[in-house]
């Protein structure tokens, strides 16, 4: 924790306070469920922030690792009666192994080639989930997934699940901030800026890229397992490539080079998506997932107007505003100091 203070404690305190009071301000079952989903998505976007914003490695396939965690938990608990916690850990281990094996070849690719490769991984996982009907139940979905329990107490109500999920998010935030402000974080930023320059310093770039890729995949896997146990039902459509694109949009909109931006993006885009889905059909005859279109519009606007993302742009604006307030006001005419120097030159 030494790398987190002094000025980095303030955002953590604000985060804890907000998380603590939100469920009592918006205490309906619908809003609590929505906040739980935002917490689950935040686990994924934080991992993507580390991978993309800090290490500069794009991924359009993180819904694949979200799916691996969800289906590992679901299959083990439903088909084999494994404890939900053991199933969650198993999902993370399986995801770590798969992402490690996948990461070795695909992380040698750059930019759009890497993006296409990650899309390919997502498509493969999606097709496998649809095809293995004897295990995953295919398009019909896997139901009857049990709730998680906390020290033997089942997490049945939305409020208990809310605090559990956001407690996990807090743990992931602490881990991620320690990575960002450590030597590893400095290396990742170096890789983002210039891989060649980082290599010339004798740093094993491939190792760092692979490690952060696996970590981000594990975060997504944990989110998938928690999602499966919260919903009690999963289907392959939840883990489509478009879902990966949604995660990407959340990160970019919030601010890819900010852990807090990743959470902000997950919150804003999930709330916006729900609002559009519930409101737009009241005024227009629209069908399908119209919120995807809105995601696209928001992404284009943010990329054009605020390329660093909403939170970093807002933060920079506040810093600039505070800086201008602290600047001394200059009076008209020459200052006493300038008059003094002018007198010295004349003499």
What can you tell me about this protein's structure?
The protein has 15 helices and four strands. The protein is globular. It has helices at residues 9-25, 29-54, 63-80, 84-106, 111-131, 133-136, 158-180, 183-193, 195-200, 205-231, 241-254, 259-283, 290-305, 310-326, 336-346, and strands at residues 142-143, 149-150, 153-154, 233-234. The longest helix has 27 residues, at 205-231. A hairpin with a 2-residue loop joins strand 2 and strand 3 (153-154). Helix 11 (241-254) packs parallel to helix 13. 75% of the residues lie in helices and 2% in strands. It has a domain at 2-240. It is mainly α and 347 residues long. A two-stranded antiparallel sheet has the order 1-4.
Distance between the termini: 60 Å
- List low-confidence stretches: 329-347
Number of strands: 4
Mean pLDDT across residues: 88
Largest sheet: 2 strands, antiparallel
> How helix-rich are the residues, as a percent range?
over 70%
The total count of helices amounts to 15
Radius of gyration using CA atoms only? 23 Å
**Spatial order of strands in the largest sheet:** 1-4
Order of helices and strands: HHHHHHEEEHHHHEHHHHH
What is the overall silhouette?
globular
Structural class: mainly alpha
Portion in beta strands = under 5%
């Amino acid at each position: 924790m030494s790398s987190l203070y002094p000025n980095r404690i303030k955002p953590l305190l604000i985060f804890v306070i907000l998380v603590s009071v939100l469920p009592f301000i918006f205490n309906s079952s619908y809003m609590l469920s929505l906040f739980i989903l935002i917490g689950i998505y935040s686990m994924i976007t934080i991992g993507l922030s580390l991978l993309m914003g800090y290490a500069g490695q794009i991924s359009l396939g993180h819904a694949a690792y979200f799916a691996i965690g969800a289906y590992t938990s679901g299959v083990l608990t439903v088909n084999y009666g494994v404890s939900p916690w053991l199933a969650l850990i198993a999902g993370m281990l399986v995801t770590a192994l798969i992402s490690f094996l996948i990461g070795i070849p695909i992380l040698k690719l750059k930019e759009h080639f890497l993006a296409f490769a990650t899309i390919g991984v997502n498509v493969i996982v999606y097709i496998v989930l649809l095809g293995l009907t004897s295990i995953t139940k295919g398009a019909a979905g896997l139901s009857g997934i049990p709730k998680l329990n906390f020290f033997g107490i089942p997490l049945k109500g939305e409020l208990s699940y809310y605090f559990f999920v956001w407690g996990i998010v807090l743990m992931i935030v602490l881990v991620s901030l320690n990575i960002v402000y450590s030597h590893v974080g400095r290396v990742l930023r170096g890789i983002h800026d210039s891989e060649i320059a980082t290599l010339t310093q004798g740093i094993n770039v491939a190792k760092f890229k692979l490690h952060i890729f696996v970590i981000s995949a594990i975060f997504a896997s944990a989110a998938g397992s928690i999602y499966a146990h919260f919903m009690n039902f999963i289907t392959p459509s939840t883990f489509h490539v478009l879902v990966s694109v949604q995660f990407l949009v959340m990160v970019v909109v919030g601010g890819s080079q900010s852990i807090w931006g990743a959470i902000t993006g997950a919150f804003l885009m999930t709330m916006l998506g729900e609002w559009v889905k519930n409101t737009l059909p009241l005024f227009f005859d629209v069908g399908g997932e119209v919120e995807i279109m809105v995601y696209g519009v928001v992404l284009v606007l943010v990329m054009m107007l605020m390329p660093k993302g909403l939170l970093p742009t807002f933060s920079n604006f506040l810093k600039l505003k505070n800086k201008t307030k602290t600047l001394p006001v200059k009076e008209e005419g020459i200052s006493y100091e300038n008059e003094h120097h002018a007198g010295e030159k004349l003499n």
